[in-house]
Amino acid sequence: MKKYFILILMICAFVHTQAQNEKMNEFITGLMNKMTMDEKIGQLNLVTPGGAVTGAVVSKDVDGKIRNGQVGGLFGITGPDRVRQAQEIAVKNSRLHIPLLFGLDVIHGHKTIFQIPLGLSCSWDTALIEKSARIAATEASADGLDWAFSPMVDISHDPRWGRIAEGAGEDPYLGSLVARAMVKGYQGNDLTQNNSVMACVKHFALYGAAEAGRDYNTVDMSRLRMFQYYLPPYRAAVDAGVGSVMSSFNEIDGIPATANKWLLTELLRNQWGFKGFVVSDYTAVSEMIAHGMGNLQEVSALALRAGLDMDMVSEGFLTTLKKSLAEARVTQSQIDDACRRILEAKYKLGLFDNPYRRMSPERAKSEIFSDANRKQAREIARHTFVLLKNDHQVLPLKKTGTIALVGPLANNKDNMLGTWSVSGDWTKSITVLDGIKNVAGSGLNIMYAKGSNISDDTAFIKRVNVFRPEIVRDPRTPEEMIREAVAAASKADVVVAVMGEASDMTGESSSMADINLPSSQENLLKELVRTGKPIVMILFNGRPMTLNWENDHLNAILDSWFAGTEAGNAIADALFGDYNPSGKLSITFPRSVGQIPIYYNHKNTGRPYDGVEPPKFKSDYLDVSNDPLYPFGYGLSYTQFSYSDLSLDKKQISGSQALTVKLTVTNSGQFAGEETVQLYTRDMAGSVTRPVKELKKFQKIYLQKGESKEVSFTLTADDLRFYNSDLNFVYEPGDFKVFVGPNSRDVKEAEFVLTK
Ligand code: BGC
Question: What is the mean pLDDT of the chain?
């Protein structure tokens, strides 16, 4: 009975969508019948008047172009009044009154800035991640925007790559869940709502695999690897109904993604059924000249033919497509298709009904940077911190006694927000010093000393400080600063050292060959260690860093990433135990940069290093172990969780059966806390080689002190599917291992067989 009911509901929904689509098609066909070829090409043009932009080129005479019908969308302006002015030019002064689409990089919040995406993914909490995107959409839409250039779902195995900060880490399964949550958060249930924005999944595709971790660099990989590791999160965003896709800067199989027909048409539209529009990345069309693909006319034609609909900033479409049409390099239907997809997006966003629907000064006043949003930013941030080390329970700290608060990021408003928070106001962010004062109250004596600069390297500082002075050198000498910090430390019960990267040491064009702490900070830490006081490091970082020395010498390390507007409050909540850290790494921390690319779901090779001596002629290094410093999935708590009684309800399942995996998790420590129980599998033999572990499921559980819970997972053959050498998504009968644990390393295991 219930089944029939669901079926009837599905049929009704289908009929309703069909009717809506017909209405939309009729409207757009009617409009396109009135459009000249120039006006159609104008819709394919995305311009920016400047602001926080990532290239030298900006668009000229934006107002004039809007009036002439030469602009489809605009990005880089915000504020209901400012956006309205531009919209009025389009709606009142252009011949056909077609509204513009207003986009922006809303990456981790709009004005209320949330934890950076890499940190968010360490919450493993898709409901919270969705909430952050929902709030971002509410604020962005109140500020005049229709379209967020987010989520970025690029998988990466390379912490040298600065943009690793903008993604969800290394795992395709977790990455897919995060992608879906973000799309749902931005787009809500109904795109016409004035508090929803269209999401734009990026950067399609494989951008996180840039060679040597150097931004914009070449990518070259097998189809099998793409499908196994890199493509699932983009696919998940498409399946979640993302309205637009941004092509990536890199090449794939020798053809830049922006003009790659296999990628943009065969895979994205034909195989995955994507119905929205594809926009290029910033000047990616004209950059194909430098890639060596031809002149502006040639690369623009290539891109359109490949399936690109909108050209961001290059104006290659605007200035050359008409000529290419006359020379039969592109067809009218290719231009029509692209124009139709962009008009459809505007229709779906409700812009033809009311082009000003997302420009409300009243909403902007009450809904942007509200107390409620800041409260959520604090709450979400707390769930993202990863406790990397906590010897002898030095954390949580007491709210009494004396602490020495040292380090270049301890009292540093400039660097709380993290990379690419373009609309965030850093002057309103909460520092760690402020947060500690707020949370600990007057019973705690705080001795603050900066101790060091983020970096002392002037050439490096100049390269980081492109947008504003994030790294400011103190007029004092390094020795004077260290002396002050050591003096504070020697009078304190405990030292809290707030160290790490400046916001723009990660993000776009912020690749690093050395991912240690800068030497100015290492020098400070070494002197602090000599005081013999317990040392807790709060780390600010947009990437995994190499922290061997710190791990060996410091008592506790709390990774806080870049926690956003409320960073200081959230960090203090964790520091003093008002919140018990629960984050788990979504990315592996290497011991050495030489281990990169390093990731948990690697293949076994024919000569795996198994710990047996001598290690000669095994797949290993002479000078460093294969193991990471902190593995994927890792993260401690103030309490301890013990895992026991792993059991499977069957030894064997067929393709149509389900396997139940059960275990008991006990909170055996002194605090209540949250744990993320992770389940991995290994396919012991396949028609293609299979990873040594793959995350398949996880559950977050909250346990009181002393409490035990039985956790149960269901696995079916569908969970065991993979791409075979024909790129079919299949499962193959055979032996499997299942692993359950608190991270990808410390697991309990069992075995089962999958039959036909
Ligand atoms: C980045 C995109 C961003 C765009 C617009 C590009 O350089 O790669 O992620 O959306 O600029 O700001």
Answer: 97
Instruction: Give me the pLDDT at residue 687, please.
Output: 98
For the cut 80, the answer to whether the pLDDT of residue 391 exceeds it is yes
Place of tokens 């090409």: 41
| Segment (H or E) for 498 | strand 494-500
Q: How far is the CA of 652 from the centre of ligand 1 (A)?
A: 49
> What torsion, rounded to 10 degrees, do the Cα atoms 374, 379, 383, 389 define?
90
281 catalytic per annotation: yes
Same domain membership, residue 403 and residue 523: yes
Supply the pLDDT for residue 343.
98
Three-state DSSP class for residue 667: strand
Distance CA 493, CA 131 (A): 39
Q: For residue 667, what are its two tokens?
A: 């909170």
The pLDDT of residue 161 is above 70: yes
> Which pLDDT score, from 0 to 100, does residue 6 have?
74
Q: Is any ligand 1 atom within 6 A of the Cβ of residue 216?
A: no
The minimum-distance atom of ligand 1 relative to the CA of 422 is 12
pLDDT of residue 52: 74
Cα 501 to averaged position of ligand 1 atoms, centre (Å): 22
- Pocket lining: 154 vs ligand 1, CB cutoff 6 Å: no
Q: Which of 143, 154, 171, 281 is catalytic?
A: 281
444-466 per-position pLDDT tens digit: 999 999 999 999 999 999 999 99
Q: Which atom of ligand 1 is nearest to the CA of 52?
A: 12
**Helix boundaries (H) for 383-473:** 432-440, 458-464
Cα(39)–Cα(134) distance, integer angstroms: 34
In whole angstroms, what separates CA 629 from the centre of its chain? 22
Say if CB 65 and CB 361 are below 8 A apart: no
First to last CA, the chain: 31
Structure confidence at residue 678 as a pLDDT band (50, 70, 90): very high
HSE value, Cβ hemisphere, 13 Å, CA-based, for 393: 9
Band (442; pLDDT cuts 50, 70, 90): very high
By alpha-carbon position, which residue is closest to atom 6 of ligand 1? 282
281 alpha carbon to ligand 1 midpoint, in Å? 6
Give the mean pLDDT of 137-151. 98
Mention every residue, 6+ apart, whose C-beta is less than 8 A from residue 683: 690, 720, 722, 732, 734, 736
Q: Which of 679, 543, 685 is nearest to 603 (CA)?
A: 685
Compute the distance from residue 467 Cα to the ligand 1 centre, in Å. Answer: 15
Can you give the residue range of the structural domain that contains 396? 380-587
Is residue 56 over pLDDT 80? no
pLDDT at 12 over 80: no
110 lies in a domain?
A: no
CATH number at residue 562: 3.40.50.1700
Pair 691, 560 in one domain: no
**pTM tops 0.90:** yes
The CATH number of residue 672's host domain is 2.60.40.10
Say if residue 536 is in the same domain as residue 466: yes
Q: Closest residue (by CA) to atom 11 of ligand 1?
A: 282
pLDDT digits (tens, 9 = 90+) for 168-225: 999 999 999 999 999 999 999 999 999 999 999 999 999 999 999 999 999 999 999 9
202 lines ligand 1 (CB under 6 A): yes
Number of domains, the chain: 2
- For 544-615, strand residue ranges (E) read 556-559
Q: Can you tell me the distance from the alpha carbon of 661 to that of 644, in angstroms, rounded to the nearest whole number? A: 12
- Does pLDDT of 1 surpass 70? no
Cα angle, residue 433 at apex, residues 430 and 436 outer, rounded to 5° = 95
Q: CA-CA distance, 698 to 739, in Å (whole number)? A: 11
Residue 444 and residue 506 share a domain: yes
Residue 615, pLDDT score: 86
User: What is the percentage of the chain residues whose pLDDT exceeds 70?
Assistant: 100
DSSP 85: H
